[in-house]
Design goal:
Blueprint: E1 2-10, H1 26-38, E2 42-47, E3 57-64, H2 67-74, H3 78-82, E4 85-92, H4 99-106
Antiparallel strand pairs: 1-3, 1-4, 2-3
Length: 113
């Protein structure tokens, strides 16, 4: 397992001029993300400052084996299925500072550098 920084952004079905709360299926998207967090796959997630009121951009920190796993798991997001959200980028993340805090959340032993 490794950590990845995932950026997601509003997709073609996003209603411009309206923020997150005005988009359809918000409750289903939130429940999906809560499930991923509950399994330890998503460690942190949220909109980048100010974008929650307009055209969304979000950052996720996930614990996964590889990019394929990330794409497969996020593909089931109701907002991905409806075209309201798309994955814009996935990058491996090398955690140096704060490893003891994040490892407590994910149930892993602290990383040694």
């Amino acid at each position: 397992m490794g950590y990845f920084a995932v950026t997601r952004e509003a997709g073609p079905a996003w209603t411009d001029g309206q923020g997150i709360t005005a988009q359809p299926r918000l409750e289903q998207h939130a429940a999906f993300m809560d499930t991923l967090a509950g399994t330890g796959f998503v460690l942190f997630a949220g909109p980048l400052s100010g974008t929650e009121k307009g055209r969304l951009r979000a950052l996720l920190i996930v614990d996964a084996d590889n990019e394929t796993e990330i794409r497969q798991r996020l593909a089931d997001d109701p907002w991905a299925l409806s075209g309201h959200l798309r994955t814009a980028g996935i990058e491996p993340w090398n955690l140096f500072v704060g490893a003891e805090r994040i490892n407590t959340l994910s149930g892993q032993a602290p990383a040694r550098h």
